[in-house]
Amino acid sequence: MSAAEPQAVHAAANRPATVLFASLIGTTIEFFDFYIYATAAVLVFPKLFFPAADPAAATLQSLATFAIAFFARPVGSAVFGHFGDRIGRKATLVAALLTMGVSTVLIGLLPTYAAIGTMAPLLLALCRFGQGLGLGGEWGGAVLLATENAPPGKRAWYGMFPQLGAPLGFFLSGSTFLVLSQTLSDADFFAWGWRVPFLASALLVIVGLYVRLKITETPDFQKVLARNERVRLPVAAVFKSHGGALVLGTLAAMATFVIFYLMTVFTLSWGTTALHYSRQTFLLLQLFAILFFGLTIPIAAVLADRLDRRRVMIGVSAAIAVFGLVFGPLFGSGSLAMVTLFMVLGQCLIGMTYGPLGTLLSEMFPPEVRYTGASLTFNLAGILGASLAPYVATWLATNHGLSTVGWYLSAAALISLAALLPVKSAKEK
């Protein structure tokens, strides 16, 4: 037995509950940090960091900084993926969580435009880049932590736990802003209240670090060590030997990002401005709808283990394309009941596509480059599908009406559907 083989046995001793909680708590923290920025980019930053005579112009400038993180995420994927495939999943996940956490806390400490002028939005953009860098390394590692510890036949079920961090993080961020909006005056909220969620994330990071430090390496990575299969430059190996999987996976995940950020950032922005809903009303509506996001993730995971992830993703992509056709009529109906139905349907579709996504992408790459490959694929899809989605949607709705936003969503879903068709299912490998 080689020196690495006893470690493989030890790694297999990870308790399922510990593994699943460690993968869930990390992504919950990361997405909480990410979403409080998204919410603030709509409600706070246009007023405090981007003063302009035209509120719409300030909002667009704020959403542009929101997009920065998506361009930072592939950089984080390459950097953290390199170490995740070279030295291990555990240490890399700890570093990614710290990067995200420090960047978020610093945002809560930034002076505004009124205090330091143009340096304020520049520092905000820099911290936003740090958020994207950390999340670029977090997601892939959390998915691998779960799926590489999964028993046979339950890989999608295990892989959905880090995906649950998205609705949980969103729910926590939305709840925090809702409580602050209801308990503080507008003057206090904009003076200091908006900083509370950013500073409070430090407590969540401490919990996440404690849990992450208690786990051991995954069995799959220990086998890579035992067989001496590590590659010198994982990112180069992904582009050279797995370029097809990278392109197909990126396009296959694109619709997931488009619908997610249309149903969260864009709807909040458009609903509280053009549709004239109050901030509290629309935050409550989003919090109600996000419950369906969380509920449909495990349903999708069960189906993905029984029917195959690819088939589930194909079916949901087709459903998203159809949903795009009713996007404008439902969201712009003027009826709170119809808007609620619209939000619930959209969040259900997000959950159904998001649940199996991590497992599908991780299975497209071999263990020696899996951290880098899955992370790059997920985050390149973020650039295509999410980075500019709120900006593009706002421009389309302003100039051509809400229905064109739905057509944009349908087009993205059809591209993802086409990319999924040639992907080999897990049962075919």
TrEMBL record:
It comes from Massilia aerilata. It is a multi-pass membrane protein. Keywords: Cell inner membrane, Cell membrane, Membrane, Transmembrane, Transmembrane helix, Transport. Its main location: membrane. Pfam families: MFS_1. The chain crosses the membrane at residues 59-81, 93-116, 122-145, 157-180, 192-213, 246-270, 282-304, 311-331, 337-361, 373-393, 405-423. It is found in: Cell inner membrane. Residues 19-429 form the Major facilitator superfamily (MFS) profile domain. NCBIfam families: 2A0106. This is MFS transporter. InterPro entries: MFS, MFS_dom, MFS_trans_sf, MHS_symport.
